[in-house]
Amino acid sequence: MNERERRANQSLRTLDEAHRNGRITREDYRARRRALLGSLCDSDGITARNALTPAAAAAPPRGGDAKRMAAPTADMASALFPDRRRLVWRLGLMAFAGLGLCALLLYALLLAGHG
């Protein structure tokens, strides 16, 4: 984090504290916050981004990082949508546990009413 970002963070904290303590209104807080965040933009209004070059993206991971990082797959839908079999298994297990709990409660009620 560079010095400009540190100053902006400190200003945002001060602004947040003033809003929480009721020294400024919500609209004033939002306007000042927008102005502070706008000052972090580059001179031409476009924020900087960290783009990966093709060589850096294709470089293989080193050492112990290779085991932690999963190989990218061509099918990203599997990453976005979880496997339904696992969900069905969990729901079935929860239903079975719920039925068991209901049976135990019913048995306890029958024993309490009988004795």
Automatic annotation (TrEMBL):
The keyword Membrane applies. Keywords: Membrane, Transmembrane, Transmembrane helix. The chain crosses the membrane at residues 87-110. This is SHOCT domain-containing protein. The lineage of its organism: Bacteria, Pseudomonadati, Pseudomonadota, Gammaproteobacteria, Lysobacterales.
